[in-house]
Hints:
A: globular, C: 14 helices, 42% helix
Amino acid sequence: MLQTKLRSLAPKNDVVSFLILAAILLVALPILFDIFRLNLIGKYLTFAFVALGLVLSWGLGGILSLGQGIFFGLGGYAMAMFLKLEASSPENTAIQSTPGIPDFMDWNQLTELPWFWEPFHSFGFTLFAIIALPTVFAYIIGAAMFKRRVGGVYFAIITQAIAAILTILIIGQQGFTGGVNGITDLRTLLGWDIRTDSAKYILYFINVILLLATLVVAQYIRKSKLGRLLVAMRDSEDRVRFSGYDVSNFKIFIFCIAGIFSSIGGAMFTLQVGFMSPSLIGIVPSIEMVIFAAVGGNLSIFGAIYGALIVNWAKTILSESYPELWLFAMGAMFIAVVLAFPKGLAGIYESYVQPWVDKKLKAIQDKKAKK
Amino acid sequence: MFADYTWAELGSIFAMQGFSGLILFSVLLLMALGLAIIFGQMGVINMAHGEFMILGAYITYLTSNLFSTYIPELFGAYFFIAIIFAFIGTFLLGALVEWSLIRHLYKRPLDTLLATWGLSLILQQLYRTVFGPREVGVTLPDWMMGSFQVSEMIEVPVNGMIVMVITLFITVGVFLFLQKSRKGKQSRAVVQNRAMAGAVGIDTARVDRFTFALGCGIAGIAGATFTMIGSTGPTSGQLYIVDTFLVVVFGGAASLLGTIASAFSISQAQSIMEFFLSGSMAKVLTLLTVIVILMLRPQGLFSLKVRR
Amino acid sequence: MKKTISPSRPGTTRRTLLKGLAAIPAAMLLATSAYASDVNSTGLAVTDDTVTVGILHSATGTMAISETGSIQAEKLAIEQINASGGVLGRQIKYIQEDGASDWPTFAEKAKKLLVKDKVAAIMGCWTSASRKAVLPVMEQYNGMLFYPTFYEGLEQSPNVIYTGQEATQQILKGIDWAKKTKGAKKFFLLGSDYIWPRTSNKIARKHIEKLGLKVVGEEYYPLGHTQFNSVINKIKLKRPDVIFTTVVGGSNVAFYKQLNAAGIDLTKEKPLVLTLSVTEDEILGIGGENVEGLYASMKYFQSLPNDNNQAFVKAFKKRWGDDIVIGDVTQAAYLGPWLWKAAVEKAGSFDIDKIRKTLPGIELTTAPEGYVKVHPNHHLWSKSRIGHAKKDGQFDVVYESKELIEPNPFPKGYQ
C-alpha cells in the first residue's frame, strides 16, 4: 500500500532525473568550476526557485503571473533588511549623525529606525517573514482576483502593474528602502562573514539543498490530488467548478506556493550576491523569470531548473563576448519557445532524447535476451 | 496653499490644469487605442506596442531629416507626411508580425504575451543598432512648438492642441470605421461570433491580420505624435507600456467606449492628484486606485457580452 | 573614512622585503622598463610589455544612452597613452564588459574583472546604483575604480577615485551665481525620484535658505515620467525666479519640450532654468531649439576655450566622428586613465596599495577642463562653471569660479 503510494508519488523516471540533477548540482558543478563561476551558478539557481513556482502556477494551474519579481523582492528585501541591520552596528556606523541605523537612512535625515524595520533585528522573525510576507501578499492578490474569476491575460497584466507600483514605491521611499540603489554592502550573517570564498561555497550548497527540497515539495504537489485538480481546472475550469470544487481556493493556494518559492529564491539571492535592489522586482526581471520556466518547459519541474541555469548562463556568456547579440538572442528565445517548442527543453527531451535512449536501451536488452 | 493668490489667478490655473488633464487624456487614449483594438478583437496583448510606437517616432525623425535635406521649404508641413509614413510603416510591420507570429498563437493568448515581448526585445536592439543607443532629437517646425496666449495667465500649448486634434480624428475615424465600413462590420462580426462569421463567408484570418496591422498602424501614429512631447530612443517605448495596458484593461475588453472612459478617468485622477501631491505619489496612488477598482470590478468599466 | 586600512593579506611582510631587494636592480636599470614582477607584486595582469585594465559600462539597456560617451572617452585616453609610450613602458590593453544597465550584472562583471582577469584598474560605472553595487566588490578584492559621473557625495572609498564632481562642487557656486548675477530670490526644485536629485536638492535647499532666499516648491517624478504639464502649472502658480532641475534620462526630453510648449521661453529667463543634469549629450536627444537659454552648472563644457580642450575635442572627433558631442561626464571619464597612469608612474608600481598612496596630490595639467588635482578624500579639486545653452546644442561659458573648489563629500551643515 505504502509502496504503491510512494511509487505513484515518485515514478522511476523522476527518481532518476532527481538523482542526476542532484549529482550535477552537488558534485559535478562544484568540481568543474571555481568559486567565482560557482557563485554565479548559485545566483542563477535562485531564479530556479521562481521558475519552479511558475511551473506549478502557470504550467499546472494556467495562472500566468508576470509579477513574480514582487515575491522575489519580498524575500530578498526581508533578508537584506536583516543583514543590513547587522552590518549597521553602532560601531560600524560611528561616523554617521545617528549611529546604528543603515547608512542610507542617515543620508535621508532619518534619526531613528522606522517601526517596520525593528522586527528584522531578529533572525527568527526574518525567516518567518520570508515565508509569511509572500503568503499574505499572494493571498490578497489571489483572493481579490480569483474569487471574482479574473484570470488569463487580465491577471498577467495586473500582476505586472503591481510589480511596477512596488518598484516606484521602493524607489520613491528611499529613506526607508534604500531607493533605487537598493540595500547594499551586506557583510555578515549572525557574525559569519558571507563575503569570503568559503562562505560562498557553503551558501551554494545550502542553496542547492533548499532547491532540491523545494523540488520535492513541487513534485509532491504535482502528484497529489491537488495537482490533478489544477490541471483539470486549467483545461476546463467550469467542469471542475460544477463538480463541486471551489476553484478559486485552489488557485489562491497554488499562487501562494509559487510566491513562497520565489521569496526563498530572493532571500538566497541576497545572501549570495550581497545586495538587493528594485531592479530585480520590476516588469523586465519579472518577465525574464517567466522565460526561465518557459525555456525549461512550463510543465516540467526539472526543466525549470535547467531553464534558469541555461538562460542565465547564456546571458553571461553572450554578454561577455557579444553584448549586442544578447537582446536578439533573448528575444529569439522567447519567440522560439512559444512558436516552435511550446514544451521547452523538457518537450525536446521527451520527444527526441528519451525515445532515442529508450530505443538504445531496448536494443541492448534485446541483444541480451537473444544471448 | 492658495491663500496668496487672487481668484483670477486661481481660475486661470484651474483652467490650465483642466487643460493639462485633457492633454493627458488624449495622450493616454492615443497610446491605448491601437492596443485596445487588437485586444478587443483577438484577445491578444501586444507587448511590443511601445516598440511599434517608437518605430513611428523614428519614421518621423527620418522624414524630418529627409525634408530638411531635400525640400527645406516644405519643412513646416513635413509632420503630416510623417504621420502618414509612420502609419504605413507600422501597418506593414504589423501585418508581417501577424503573418509570421501571431496567427499561430490565437488559441494561446498567454503565449502571445511572451512572443510579443520577445519581439519587443528584438526591435529594441534593432533600433539601437540602426539609430545608435542615444536618443535622437526630432526637430519640429517652429509653428508647432509655441503657445497661444489666451489671457495673461492662460497659455495653451500648440503641441497639446495638435495631440488632441489627432486623437479626436483617429478616435472618430476608428469608431466610424468599425460601425460603418464593410471591413469594420466584418471585424465586429468576428469578435461577436467567430465561427458564425466564418460560416457566412467572412475570411476571418484576413480580418484578423487587418485588425492587428491597423492596431499597429495607430500605434505608429501615436509614436509620431509623441515626438512633440516625449523622447525618441531605443527603450523609450517601455516608458509607455504599463500606462497603456492599464488603460485598456481598466476600460474593459472589446469596448472602444470603455477605453475612452478609462483613459479619461485615469488622466483626470492623475492630473488632479499631481497638482495636490508630489508627482511620484500621484503616480503610485493612481495605479493603486486602478488596481483596487479592477479587483472589485475585474471585467473593467465597460464590458461586451460575447460568445466565446 | 569608511575603511582606510586596506585588507591585509598574508605574507605581506615577506613580500615587502623581497620587493625592497628587487628595487635595487630596478633602480639601476633606471629609465628602461622594469620587469613585471618588480612593478606588480600582487599578481595583476601585467606582463613585460602590457598591462590590462577593465572598462565596465552599459553598452546595452536604458543606460547605454548615457554611458556610450564614457566608453569612447576611456578608449581614446588609453589609445593616446599607448601612443605616447604607455605606462611604465607597457602598452595598455583593455577588457570591456557590459553592465547591461543592470546592477547585479555590474557587480558580477566587476568581480570577473578583478578575480579572473586581474585587471590593474577599472574605468567604469555611471549611475549611483551601479557604483553602490560594485563598491563592496572593489573593497573586498582591493581593486581601483575610476568613476566618472557627477554624483550625490556621501561616499568615500579607498578603492574608488571619483573623477566627476560631488554635489556641493556642482551646486553651491551655481546658486551663488544665480543670486548674485541674476538677483534670484525664489527657487523651485524639480527632480527625478531617486537618490541623486533628492540629495542634490537637499543641499541646494540648505544653501538657498542659508543665503536668505526661498524655496517655493520641491517636486519629484518617477524615472521615465513623460507628463510634466501639472508641474509646469504649479511652477506658473508659484512664480519662482529659478527652476532648479535634476531631471534625468528620457524625462528630460519630455520636460523641456513641454516647458517650451507651455510658453515658458528659456531665453527670457522668466523663470530662469538652472540644471545639473543636461550636458551636450542630453541636448542631442532634447533638441537644441528646446533648451536654448538654459543654464547648466557643471565643471566642463565642450566649448571651453583652453588649449588642452581644443586638442581633446579635436582628437575625440577624429577618433569617433565629427558629429559627436562631449559632455561633462565624458570628459571626467577621459581623466580616469590619465590619473591612473600618473599615479602608477609616481609609485613605480601597479600595486593597488601603492597607487592608493600616490594618488592624493596627483595633478593633471593637461586635463581638458584645465587643471585637476586628486584630494586625499579621492575626489578631484575642480572649478565650477555655468554654461548658457545655444540653439546649436553647445554652451557659452558665462561664469567660472576663480579658484578650484574643494571636494567635500560629507558636507557639514548640508545633511
